[in-house]
Design a protein that fits this description.
single chain; alpha/beta; OB fold (Dihydrolipoamide Acetyltransferase, E2P); Rossmann fold; 8-stranded mixed sheet; 6-stranded parallel sheet; 32 helices; 30% helix; spermatogenesis; helicase; hydrolase; RNA-mediated gene silencing
């Protein structure tokens, strides 16, 4: 068993590792560090005649040394491919010590000197031994599914493999074989102090299967000595196994003293006394071991079988019997070999004995699993029948499919398989899904439909878009625009345009559409501004797409209705009768606005809902919330079982455990109510339970079934009239699965003409909410707010108390960013940050001997622009410039070369020095690259504490910082310009505004009035840049930052900004603290002729 460190993961059949140590054959990490230093010193400076060490010829597979720009050092490499360019050759090289593929110009390639090839390649290529990928094969004709071996690993297996390796804290591998340069291993990882065999884990979870190792035919002459018989050793000799295959040619089985390996002029001397003695010792031990085992002729296997019930069944490592005599009988040897492979077959096949059906993985009874495997999962609620598609049958163009495959798109998701066909046919479609914010739900089929140009011939022959995609904000619009550019390459040119229009009339009037533009991506407000001045350009509009439709209606409901009215009037023009007209709405939540959209503006729409809790809203399920104490749940349950004599009722009661199900069943039966129960421990009763449930009920009769959540799929119930959540659902998906049991009784108001009889059969969901489910009360309230349910006042009060308690837990969290920059937070219920003033944290901090000013005028220089109104910079103190003094001292200190000492061990949150652009800075380490933290060079995420900006650097560039420099407080201060916010209810500034302000104010001296200070943040209003007029001996305002933002039309007035923050301060004790702090400042400020002047 050897300890390893994972470098790079491609899939379970290919991952790269560093062997950290197992035998004396393996060089210590320091040897590689020493080799790296020597190699860089040689290629950087010591060898002046560069042409002599440049290769005369480049070939694929050639070992060389290249310069890596990312690592900023010379590295050993192997050339994988060569491409010619205008002025040089470009080679794709694999860094054999770092497991990286990089492109390298031919001028940066050097000959590999023998001295630098003395160590084996540090990155070793591993794969899991006898572990092969599987896939789910679905036979639609036979209506069954089975797991079969596959040629490549699917994305789910790769993702799971990566996740468990990322979560592991320790890695060990057992070498089992070797093929070319790939090592076959059993990989063991430690997760939460538990050791797991990854091979077993992948097989047990049906990501892989075991295969029997291929038997190699061994020719054994009748008279042969043990030395002539090829017998696999107990473990591969590391002295041989760890050398790259390109350096192994005709290597003898056993290394003798003084062996020299030669390849392509590279000589590798392994004749050291230590290595030779170790080799002799190992083979003496093996000879002795073989002689002791000859009479047993026992052969074991190293093939591990998957665990069942936490038990791993395995055999001892391979040990081949060898005679102490000089001869081995041929018959005996063949018998031994046959027995060895029979046992390997038996051990591998033990998996099938323990798990004969590969679909059986969770331990539920056979009957339960057979029913489960025949039920389509997950569920979907449809209006109009849709046949789901696969990637092969998807209605997409060939070019688009190629682009999707190039982007590693394997199969459409469950939602995509249902929504792609109707969208590609040009139908009106509503899609509600948990991933309803994914643009790929509609982009591929829309692009395909646009290829059929014949259906647009009746439209006016003028410039104008065929498709308008309306997004909730500029950031989402930018993302969709980039996707259209990427996936539109496989189709005819559509010339998509991203249009975000500000408040300036001139901007909307002067907007020009690109010639041939057929797709526009915009926001509701921007679209209305365009329609005001360019309505004629939208006469060709055929497809109106709403992305995140529930957000659009919530934030811009009036604008959405105006857009829909315009589209409705446009499509009824006589000349457009033969042209398509389509509305597609994608979202994550059903709402009354979407119901209005389907009724008033769509024509026989297809509705696809894969989020079952949202399907319940669509189906008008009556939601009832009953608050009670946990100890009173059973009595509350009995009160809710109020059977009406008018209708037959089928009631499902869900519990979270078997014990709870048994208790509930007994309680219900004690009230003389016939009750069925179903849980995994009584799975044999499944058939009888279903027979009882499916019996036709007479008027006024009823049936009650108590079940656990894991029995929902095999029960496959869809005709329940009432669901009672005795135990709180563990997730929204479980909640939705429970509600789907009533799907036959869903009554959507979208369907016209529902009978009165159906109206009386309205499905009901009863949720018992206790103090144990307090953490979920907020989510339940948000869900109920979107229904017609009567919300108990107790629930609102209870939720308010829960939110207050959550806020109290955020005591040490930073103040909410949106609260700081705009004065409000859009949703405090889900925001992780603090929304009240904490005097302990928010006390204005000290830059030197005095705290930040809470009022008055200051001079500031911005050095880092976060967005249009949020910057980091320094306040210039007219009495004492602490930063200037610090900078001079640091420059003087680091002039001495002996003081420029790199840090050996980098620590998180520690302070260091950094030399950048002829200036020495103080930086704080925020994060270190985890995967590379044991390497010589690795990336470090740092913050410049005197400027506020964040960047990345290499660990070796960090310098030791004396304690006297560390003791000086950070000089960077956060500045926020007040009383201005983004337009159209946006929460983030458009990059166009941020770029403009960055160019305008970066590094310039400004004067500002402080209106509030909390912690390290200063709110200023106004912030101006002054220009001195030397002739007139005065200054004028060149620009006001807030006015510049408003002039661009992307910002609007926010008069309540500071008032809201001051209100929070008054609610705490900050006002008194600020007044006492203000008394320590002695700054008297006067405004004269429009500019601030400072007097002592």
């Amino acid at each position: 068993m050897i300890e390893v460190f994972i470098l790079k993961i491609e899939d379970p059949g290919c991952f790269w590792v560093i062997i950290k140590g197992c035998d004396a054959f393996l060089d210590h990490e320091m040897e590689y560090q020493k080799l790296n230093i020597e190699m860089n010193a040689f290629y950087n400076s010591e060898y002046k005649d560069v042409e002599k060490i440049k290769p005369l010829l480049l070939e694929e597979g050639q070992a060389c040394v290249v310069y890596c720009q990312e690592l900023k050092c010379w590295c050993r490499a192997v050339i994988k491919s060569i491409m010619s360019s205008a002025d040089h050759y470009l080679a794709e090289c694999f860094l054999v010590d770092f497991a990286k593929y990089i492109p390298v110009k031919s001028k940066n390639i050097r000959v590999a000197i023998d001295a630098f090839m003395r160590l084996p390649y540090r990155a070793k290529k591993f794969r899991l031994y006898c572990t092969k990928p599987v896939t789910l094969h679905i036979d639609f004709c036979e209506d069954n599914a089975e797991i079969i071996p596959a040629k490549k690993w699917d994305s789910a297996a790769i993702q799971y493999f990566q996740n468990i390796l990322k979560a592991a804290t320790h890695f060990e591998a057992k070498l089992c074989g070797m093929e070319e340069d790939i090592f076959d291993v059993y990989l063991y990882i430690t997760i939460k102090n538990e050791k797991v065999c990854v091979n077993d884990d992948l097989v047990a979870k049906n990501f892989a299967c075991y295969v029997t190792p291929k038997e190699k035919k061994i020719d054994c002459p009748e008279k042969a000595t043990p030395k002539n018989v090829e017998s696999p050793p107990d473990k591969i000799n590391p002295a041989l196994a760890l050398w790259p295959m390109l350096l192994q040619e005709n290597i003898p089985e056993k290394l003798e003293k003084g062996v020299i390996l030669q390849h392509n002029g590279l000589s590798l001397d392994l004749s050291s006394k230590k290595v030779s003695e170790k080799i002799e010792k190992i083979y003496k031990e093996k000879e002795c071991m073989y002689s002791k085992e000859i009479n047993k002729i026992t052969v074991a296997t190293a093939a591990y079988c998957p665990r069942k019930g936490g038990i791993t069944i395995y055999a001892e490592p391979d040990v081949h019997a060898e005679s102490s005599c000089q001869k081995l009988n041929e018959k005996q040897f063949k018998l031994t070999s046959k027995k060895k492979y029979d046992e390997k077959n038996g051990c591998v096949k033990l998996l099938q004995f323990l798990n004969p059906d590969p679909l059986k993985t969770d331990g539920i009874h056979d009957i339960l699993q057979k029913l489960k495997s025949s039920i389509p999962q997950p569920s979907v609620v449809l209006r109009n029948k849709i046949k789901p598609c696969s990637f092969e049958t998807a209605p997409l163009s060939v070019g688009l499919k190629k682009t999707l495959r190039k982007n590693k798109f394997l199969e459409p998701t469950h939602t995509e398989s249902y929504c792609w066909p109707p969208i590609a046919r040009g139908c009106d479609v509503i899609v509600i899904s948990h991933n309803g914010n994914d643009p790929l739900l509609y982009i591929p089929p829309v692009l395909t439909f646009l290829q059929t140009g014949g259906c647009y011939k009746s439209l006016p022959s003028r410039n104008g878009p065929l498709v308008v995609i309306v997004c909730p904000g500029w950031k989402k619009a930018q993302h969709i625009f980039e996707l259209l550019q990427e996936y539109g390459r496989g189709s005819r040119p559509l010339h998509p345009m991203l249009l975000i229009i500000g408040l300036n009339k001139e901007e909307a009037q002067n907007t020009k559409f690109q010639r041939g533009c057929e797709v526009i991506i915009t926001t509701p407000h921007s679209l209305l501004r365009l329609l005001k001045y360019h309505s004629l350009l939208f006469l060709r509009l055929c497809h109106l797409i709403f992305d995140e439709v529930e957000v659009l209606f919530f934030e811009a409901g009036e604008q959405m209705l105006t857009i829909l009215d315009y589209f409705k009037k446009t499509i009824i023009i006589e000349e457009r009768e033969s042209a398509p007209h389509q509305i597609v709405a994608i979202g994550a939540h059903w709402s009354k606005h979407i119901e209005l959209l389907t009724k008033e503006f769509m024509n026989d729409p297809y509705i696809v809902i894969t989020a079952m809790e949202e399907a319940a809203l669509y189906g008008n399920v009556q939601q009832v919330v009953q608050l009670c104490l946990d100890c009173e749940k059973t009595s509350t349950l009995l009160r809710m079982l109020d059977f009406s004599p008018c209708h037959a009722q089928k009631i499902l009661i869900f519990t979270s455990s078997v014990a709870e199900a048994e208790i509930v069943c007994k309680v219900v039966e004690s009230s003389s109510i016939f009750c069925l129960k179903m849980h995994p421990e009584i799975a044999a009763n499944l058939k009888n339970v279903l027979e009882q449930w499916k019996k036709k009920l007479s008027l006024g009769s009823h049936i009650v079934l108590v079940s656990t959540d894991d029995c929902i799929p095999p029960l496959a119930i869809t005709d329940a009239t009432c669901v009672i959540h005795f135990s709180f659902p563990g997730s929204p998906k479980i909640f939705g699965a429970r509600l789907y049991c009533m799907s036959d009784n869903f009554q959507s108001s979208v369907e016209q003409g529902a009978s009165s009889e159906q109206g009386n059969k309205k499905a009901k969901s009863i949720l018992l909410l206790t103090e144990r489910s307090a953490c979920c009360a907020v989510g339940i309230l948000r869900y109920l707010e979107r229904t017609d349910a009567k919300i108990p006042p107790e629930l609102c009060d209870f939720t308010a108390g829960v939110l207050e308690a959550k806020e109290d837990k955020k005591l040490r969290r930073p103040l909410c960013h949106y609260l700081k920059v705009s004065g409000f937070c859009k949703d405090k219920r889900i925001c992780p940050d603090r929304h009240y003033i904490n005097p302990e944290i928010d006390m204005p901090r000290k830059l030197s001997d005095r705290p930040l000013a809470t009022t008055g005028y200051v001079k500031i220089i911005p050095f880092y622009i976060v967005n249009a109104t949020n910057y980091f910079g320094r306040i210039l103190d007219k009495h004492k410039d602490l930063y200037a003094a610090l900078n001079m001292e640091m420059e003087e200190y680091f002039k001495e070369s002996s003081n420029k000492m790199s840090v050996e061990k980098v620590e998180k949150f520690a302070l260091y020095g950094l030399h950048e652009k002829a200036v020495f800075h103080r930086v704080q380490v925020l994060e270190m690259s985890q995967k590379e933290e044991n390497c010589v060079f690795f990336n470090v995420h740092i913050k410049f504490i005197d400027e506020g900006r964040i960047s990345n650097t290499k660990n070796h560039q960090l310098l030791r910082l004396p304690q006297r420099f560390q003791n000086v407080p950070p000089q960077a201060v956060e500045f926020i310009v007040c009383r201005v916010k983004p337009i159209d209810n946006e929460v983030e500034w458009n990059p166009k505004v941020t770029r403009y302000i960055h160019h305008k104010i970066m590094g310039k001296l400004h004067e500002a009035k402080v209106v509030l200070s909390l912690g390290n943040t200063v709110w200023v209003d106004p912030m101006v840049h002054l220009t001195k007029l030397s002739d007139l001996k005065t200054s004028v305002i060149e620009y006001n930052v807030r006015a510049e933002i408003l002039s661009m039309g992307m910002g609007t007035d926010n008069p309540e900004h500071i008032d809201q923050l001051k209100k929070l301060c008054q609610e705490s004790t900050m006002v008194a603290l600020q007044e006492s702090t203000f008394q320590t400042t002695h700054c008297v400020v006067q405004w004269k002729h429009g500019s601030p002047r400072f007097e002592s």
